[in-house]
């Protein structure tokens, strides 16, 4: 099963409807993205998703929203509990695939697993941040 097919099936659990994204919280907006990343970026891959999220982060911060600010530190504190020089995409891969060598290309199954872990971690991070606000 391809990545887009996997996420299309996953999206059946999320109500997707044309909506104005402006009143959505960051968490709500990124839940819409996580349900159907291929709809936003054309095809689904770990690289495509992380590039989209990096772009989202930069745009959000430029407009005064926190974006993904604190996500990397949250990953380190709550999931790795050790120092790392990786940016958040590398940390997510370490969490999702602790035995991966960071040289070998990801298999389709590893891509699906990594994206599932990423979307779960991102949602938990944003939920915790919303609870504090």
| Dominant shape | globular
In whole angstroms, how far apart are the ends?
40 Å
Mean pLDDT: 88
How many helices does DSSP assign? 7
What is the C-alpha radius of gyration, as a whole number of Å? 15 Å
> What is the number of strand segments?
0
Extract low-pLDDT stretches: none
Helical coverage, percent range: 55-70%
Question: In this structure, how is the largest beta sheet organized?
Answer: none
Strand content: under 5%
Structural class: mainly alpha
SSE run: HHHHHHH
Short description:
The chain is mainly alpha-helical and 133 residues long.
What secondary-structure arrangement, pairings included, does this model have?
Layout: H1 3-11, H2 26-35, H3 37-41, H4 46-62, H5 71-80, H6 88-96, H7 108-132
Write up what this structure looks like.
This protein is mainly α and 133 residues long. Helix content is 64%, strand content 0%. It has helices at 3-11, 26-35, 37-41, 46-62, 71-80, 88-96, 108-132. Helix 2 packs antiparallel against helix 7 (108-132), helix 5 (71-80) runs parallel beside helix 6 and helix 6 (88-96) packs across helix 7. The longest helix has 25 residues, at 108-132. 21% of the residues are buried. The mean pLDDT is 88.
